[in-house]
Write a sequence for this structure.
């Protein structure tokens, strides 16, 4: 398999450039990429050092390097362009066409993408993360009237990471509630969730996958037995169907996909905060 | 202030397109953008419906719409291009140049960016989130030998959201430990942290900002008084300096900036997982 060193270079965090580079490079699965991220390249010395590092790799690999960049400081980008590299700058590609489309010049302000643009908005994001922490795993049910949504499912069906993602990136107040054997007998949504049923979303998972996840936590326990996993999942799915709660299977999808699917299913207005 | 409706359209989650659009649009602070995200546009009917929605907005606003897209299915993109819109497709712009640079064709595989590409990698990300949850606020110190890093600071200095971000996006095992008055007398890193001091990073914050954050939690308490906030912060900073722990002020930077700064300061190999 051919391999290439890829640099992600930015005068800020480099997070946007790194995520975009992953999206793009994932379309070339037959090349092995070795990624080096250089964030906060925000003075002349750092730019010079980055160029030296990029050039050294180009010399040692025998071809120019590949660089994904996001620079708000255009002088630094211009200098970076002199490196022995194919430089793809995400702002460079799109800000020009956007300027033409919008009819106004760009501000070239630093720190907009992941900076604190709006203090109230930022504070609400932090509050949402603390809310998700404080409302994890069925605790603080008194918080539920404040919830934007409540995730329900058996232990280790993906509720906690998804709640945190929804809080962190969408500022949503997300509680989560574990279904346990006590609740299966009634085959209905637990009473505590009834007043909030419009905001409840169920998560389910394949029994074999659940068994693996639980075994990592408590090997050789009844909790992690395939029999127990099957029993809980069948009952949870029956409960979701019976109480008309939307639910879906999270086995082969990522946290990002789970989170955005939930937002779509519940019809929540979506806006990412970072 | 002029306003524009912006569509984010994707046959997957749309997360990459949404983040990119935020980065780009933040460079045009004098335009008010109203964003509509249409994820999972993955069949002919959904494409047709998206085009109708985009065209309606164009007609009502009196100019073409602005669309940020990421489509792995190129037929859907081609159809979307017929909408009354300026369509910026992120793959379209860069996959061609990358193909030329790498000398191999793109796979156009769906679900690579935020899908579960590598099960082991994905499982480690989930484990890291659970580790951060279980090691929050000084609990389970027995877990510290497993930590990639330990964040230290006074209550509400930003430790918890940062720990979760580092876990979620970098797969790092991050614990956090709150500094309390008991620890200030010695003016040294608490004993429990001594064996791990190479992996400790301190967070500090302006007293006035800390006061605001604490007041939201417990208004009119001694905990939220400016005097108490000042006292704790001064002592925490003294402790960091005295014990040679790297630390920095988080007051006016975002979770993303805090997280990437920590990774840089501790010299941790950085690779985002999603």
């Amino acid at each position: 398999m051919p391999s290439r060193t890829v640099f992600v270079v930015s005068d800020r965090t480099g997070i946007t450039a790194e995520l975009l580079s992953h999206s793009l490079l994932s379309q070339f699965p037959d090349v092995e990429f070795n990624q080096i991220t250089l964030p906060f390249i925000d003075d002349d010395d750092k730019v010079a050092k980055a160029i030296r590092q990029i050039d050294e790799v180009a010399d040692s690999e025998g071809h120019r390097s590949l660089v994904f960049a996001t620079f708000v400081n255009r002088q630094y980008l211009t200098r970076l362009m002199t490196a022995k590299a194919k430089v793809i700058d995400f702002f460079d590609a799109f800000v020009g066409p956007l300027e033409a489309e919008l009819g106004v010049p760009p501000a070239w302000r630093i720190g907009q993408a992941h900076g604190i643009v709006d203090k109230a908005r930022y504070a609400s994001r932090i509050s949402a993360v603390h809310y998700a922490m404080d409302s994890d795993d069925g605790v603080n049910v008194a918080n539920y009237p404040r919830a934007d949504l409540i995730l329900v499912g058996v232990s280790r069906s993906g509720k906690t990471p998804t709640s945190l993602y929804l809080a962190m990136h969408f500022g949503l107040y997300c509680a989560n509630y574990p279904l346990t054997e006590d609740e299966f007998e009634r085959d209905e949504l637990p009473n505590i969730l009834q007043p909030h049923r419009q905001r409840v979303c169920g998560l389910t998972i394949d029994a074999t996958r659940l068994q693996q996840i639980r075994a990592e936590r408590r090997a050789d326990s009844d909790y992690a037995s395939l029999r127990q996993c099957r029993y809980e999942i069948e009952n949870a799915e029956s409960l979701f169907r019976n109480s008309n709660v939307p639910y879906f299977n999270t086995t082969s999808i990522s946290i990002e996909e789970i989170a955005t699917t939930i937002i779509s299913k519940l019809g929540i207005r979506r806006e990412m905060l970072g």
User: Anything to note?
Assistant: The beta strands of chain B are 3-10, 32-38, 65-70, 85-89, 149-153, 174-178, 200-204, 247-249. The two ends of chain B are 35 Å apart (CA to CA). The longest strand of chain B covers residues 3-10. Residues 209 and 251 of chain B are 7 Å apart (CA to CA).
